[in-house]
Amino acid sequence: MEQVRHLIGPEDLNQKEMEELFRLADSILMHPERYMDVCKGKIMASLFFEPSTRTRLSFEAAMLRLGGQVMGFSEPHGSSASKGESLQDTIRTVACYADLAILRHPKEGAAKLAKEASPWMPVVNAGDGGHLHPTQTLTDLMTIRHLKKSLKDMTVVLCGDLMFGRTIHSLAKALSTYEGMKLILVSPKELKMPSYVIEELPPGSYVEVASLEEALPLADVLYMTRVQKERFLNEKEYERLKDVYVLTKEKLQWAKKELIIMHPLPRLQEISVAVDEDPRAAYFQQAKLGMYIRMALILKLLKMEDER
Ligand code: NCD
Fold it and tell me: pTM, whole model, 2 decimals?
């Protein structure tokens, strides 16, 4: 039997497969009409145990635009998890009805558990606690590739909550596999990148600093993140750290003209609204590209990427 592919962490796709996905996403972007009914008769389960706007809606829009159908829930109260059902049992049940499942869960490692309970239905990790978020990474890489026309020899500044930001963990791992990528990790000392991510970065490929002003002039890509309130145990600590980095129009005077500014969104105060009108602001475009790369991913996991 052919093996089922899941996407739990960025390492589940090699660089060649990611490039194939980017090309497929480009083709869908250019000729959406060709893909309108490729997934007719297929069902995607959207299992969101944690809030989401972009990830859930872009996945659902992706499946609908491919002609497939979507079912699921957008909060844990909408499922038997609220009665105490285990995640494994939920997944085994969903696998009786759906061809593919997208899972967001507050617990680190939940997606891996789900994959193990799902021998025939592909499972996609749409964020597991403060751990990983590989489809945001596909979105992020596609955005860089789309706007910079390359995925090598760049300085990428990752700024904000590097401790709990799951998008950052997946992105740093993936970026470090590309040639000539230098990472500048900007965070307060309380929110530094966890050691399990740092250990996977090649020595010399990153530096850790505390000042955004110091890093900004060097950046080809600036990736801002929200301080992840929901992962803090202490509210006072969150209040103290939430506004350490705020990107303003004034600060951008020191940045390169060709910089792109990214953010997985939702944005709180870390990027001032006035920055939105700067041509370097790419975060809403990033959110849009996320739908196309998810369309490509759905086709790949359903083994339908050669259908058009
Ligand atoms: C991120 C997430 O949920 O991890 N958002 C997203 O998926 N686009 C980032 C965040 O919530 O700050």
Answer: 0.97
